[in-house]
Structures are given as structure tokens and as C-alpha cells.
């Protein structure tokens, strides 16, 4: 009788990061071709991604509870899984914020921000993919550095965007709405950086 196949935690983490990437792709697509008539449909699509990610994370945790000897420390697996989940949640929050504030028109600088978020999620995905062979990987360090660079790009977009907003907008409602939207966008990049930093910490501990 063949033994039961071991649960692949690295593959599970990669699956979680795939949901983050899908969410970022949907956000970019929704913002670049924004229509209020289809926003509700896009939010449902986004929620389905987020809900599927939650189910996958819970499934991984259930396996981890019963695991005798995981490939890396349980705490490290849980931390990475939660931080990847935070990325997906942060991306979903952007669309929910836009819907909640009844935004009718997207500011022209916002699509660039969503492109940066998507790029950040792509580099995060590769970083997670390279975790399995971190001792031999020739790409992992470069991808972690790239996530950090993109997070700095996100910071600059946030600072410059809010600065431009307060220089050229006098409507207090618009100021409130877009300040919050910008904050949500920046949080996506911050969340990706948290994942990259956690992976780097795990590599240091296990090298």
C-alpha cells in the first residue's frame, strides 16, 4: 500500500499568493476601465477571490495543526500565510472603499498606482515560489529587493498623489474620499513588503 502523499506547504503558500495576484489584476483592470455600472459585479468577483483565499488558508492551517514535522517552523508558515492573506484583503479593500464612497470618476493618477500594486504582487508571488529552494535559489533575493523597491514606488505615488490632491482640490468631501483611497492603495504595497520581509527573515533563520 502506498503511503499518503505529504501535504505541500510551499505549494499551499504559493496558492495563497496566486489569489493576491489575481486580486491585483482584477483591481488594475477595474480601475483602468472604470464604470460604475459594472462595479458591483467586480466587487463580487473580488470577494470570491478573497473568500477562496480564506478557505485555502484555513485548509492549510488544519493540516498544519496535525503536522508532525513541517518543513519550516509552524509559526513561520502561519505568519507568511496570514501576511499573504493581508495582501488579498488590502486589495479588496480598495474596491470596497471606492464603492462605499460612491466614486463616480477615477483620478488620472490612480491607474499607475494599481499597476505598481500588480507588479508588487507579481514579485511577491515569485518570492513565495522560490521559498521551496531558498538555499539554491538565484532569484529569491532579487525578487525581495524588487518588492521593497516597488513599495518605495508606492510610497512616492502616495505622497505625490495626496500632495497634488490637497493643492488642487477644495471640496472637503473629495479630499476625504481620495485621502482614504490613497491610504488603501499604499497599504497594498506595504502588505506585499511585509510578506517579502518575512520570507527574508525565514531564509536567514534556516540558512
From TrEMBL:
Gene3D superfamilies, A to Z: Phosphate transport system protein phou homolog 2, domain 2
What Pfam families does its record include? PhoU_div
Q: Which domain of life is it from?
A: Bacteria
Task: Output the PANTHER family linked to this UniProt entry.
Answer: UPF0111 PROTEIN YKAA
Hey, which family's this protein in?
Belongs to the UPF0111 family.
Q: What is this protein called?
A: Phosphate transport regulator (Distant homolog of PhoU)
Q: Which organism is it from?
A: Anaerocolumna jejuensis DSM 15929
